[in-house]
Design a protein that fits this description.
The chain is an alpha/beta fold. 35% of the residues lie in helices and 27% in strands.
Length: 310
Amino acid sequence: MDEQGILSVVRLRKSYGNGAGRTVVVDGLSFSLRRGECYGLLGPNGAGKTTTLRLCLGLTAPDDGQITLVGHSVPANARAARLRVGVVPQADNLDPDFTVVENLLVFGRYFGMRDQDIEARIPALLEFANLSAKKDARIGELSGGMKRRLTLARALVNDPDLIFMDEPTTGLDPQARHMIWDRLKTLLGQRKTIVLTTHFMDEAERLCDRLAVIDHGKMIAEGSPRDLIRQHIEAEVVEVYGDEALAWGGEEGRLRSARMEISGETVFCYTNDARPLLETLQGRNGVRYLHRPANLEDLFLKLTGREMRD
């Protein structure tokens, strides 16, 4: 398999419904992955991320477009492709009737692996997930973080080339999230390739070599996190809040910012030189402020908007 052949998506389209009421969910999406990279799919709820993953795995048939997954055309040869792929779904779907080890053993059988080959891999998978001491525990005895780590270990039972991770740290506490991040970095160090969807911008910024921002099924930006921030966002952000924040924004913020946004009672000022803004804030009553460099969340909100999505 060549370096560019791990996953290729060309002009992918998918819609649902009939006639005039048809809803386009994925609209001409194209991207490709390099071996050993983490590629992020970011977008608001309903942007088409999960549908894109299902299309790539051959679980949903596209209306148009071409998908090549680990050297196989999808959906025509999806079953063969999935033998080289691991999946960490949004929700844990571990079997509560089985122990930790039994979950790994049964899942390996789905790939046609022999029991002795699965059993040979289990100790390393348990150590990777920091679950060796819980190997005989049933799923109901595990914490949320343990279940998530087991789901990750299960996705590796077939030693996949590519791993799809759909919001892998949602609902976890900070300690568990950091442990998952550490494990994902280990996989990348082993030249595994990861497709990651997440709503945590710090997670994407930490893990992703490249990412795509999609909205309404279309790609609206693609590149490394740092490059995208430089291309789309001013270098510095001043967040101003407090009883007088809106008044200050109308007087000084709009005048001295390259761009200003208001969300609730917080004023966001974007600028390449924050000194004039900070001078007006020093000693002013009724306001508090935070001065920071621009980040991926600023990029995401600029490209997709601040309104809530269901």
